[in-house]
Specification:
Elements (H helix, E strand, L loop, with lengths): L3 H4 L9 H32 L17 H29 L14 E8 L2 E6 L33 E4 L3 E4 L4 E7 L4 E5 L4 E5 L5 E5 L5 E7 L11 E7 L1 H13 L4 H4 L1
Parallel strand pairs: 1-5, 4-10
Antiparallel strand pairs: 1-2, 2-3, 5-8, 6-7, 6-9, 9-10
């Protein structure tokens, strides 16, 4: 395996990932310039002010303002990266969520994601587009979302407990991240998505997969002695395959079958 496989990020598979990669590239280029520049300056000063050429100390010190100008330039580049790239990217990720228009074929797909030692679970509203009633008093290892089985709206909800789940390609996805025990971190490296899963909180994220395939979900927060085994499978498929899978999961009993 090439060393570049360890140094470069995995191939991007989401619409917003390009902007994330560009920001990371610019930051690393700045760090490279700083590393090379300050190392060169250090070597220059070691040679220029060596004892053989300067047996007597000069108490006046540096007379050039080069270092001051260099620091101002570096600060200017950092401000540009912050205000020109990082802040707009953050604002888009946090504030500019995709909106529903009433078209079931183009509207964003919403998924509840629940971290659980040591697995990832998913919950979709059913074909009726209504979320089943949830009560945390009902929550258990087999019902991490606390779905109330007697609620009619929960009967066709789709839950995937410790199993792969699917989404269609080129559709906006909204994941609402939470945890039923300790702090986890939902990470999809190929989608450039990372979000802490915190007990008692539901934190939304959004992205748009643009490549079909099977992608691994990992936990990016140390969460216990089996942390390294906490993985899930996120499958991006075409719309027809997603529709078939979703209909079969809902018809099989939906959420009710998973915890009764």
């Amino acid at each position: 395996m090439s060393i570049w496989n360890y140094l470069l990020p995995p191939p991007n598979a989401s619409a917003q990932g390009k902007a994330v990669d560009e920001l990371m590239l610019y930051i690393h280029l700045l760090m490279l310039v700083l590393f090379v520049g300050w190392l060169a300056y250090f070597l220059y000063t070691v040679f220029r002010f060596r004892k053989a050429k300067n047996p007597k100390a000069d108490h006046v010190g540096a007379r050039s303002h080069f270092s001051t100008y260099a620091e101002i330039g570096i600060a200017a580049v950092e401000v540009l990266l912050l205000l020109g790239f990082a802040v707009p990217l953050w604002a888009k990720a946090v504030d500019q969520f995709p909106v529903r228009t009433g078209n079931p074929q183009t509207d964003p797909i919403e998924i509840q994601i629940m971290g659980q030692q040591f697995a990832w679970n998913a919950h979709f509203a059913g074909p009726d587009d209504k979320w089943g009633k949830q009560d945390m008093k009902e929550a258990s290892a087999n019902n991490p979302f606390g779905l109330v089985g007697s609620d009619p709206d929960a009967k066709d909800d789709v839950t995937c407990l410790r199993e792969p789940f699917r989404v269609p390609v080129n559709r906006d996805i909204i994941c609402r991240i939470s945890s039923m025990d300790v702090i986890h971190s939902f990470k999809l490296p190929r989608m450039r998505v990372t979000q802490d899963a915190i007990p008692g909180m539901t934190i939304p994220i959004h992205f748009r997969p643009v490549e079909k395939g099977s992608y691994i979900i990992i936990c990016a927060q140390l969460c216990g002695n089996l942390h390294s085994t906490m993985k899930g499978e996120f499958m991006v498929v075409d719309q027809a395959e997603y529709d078939t899978w979703f209909a079969e999961k809902a018809k099989a009993g939906g959420a009710g079958a998973s915890f009764e």
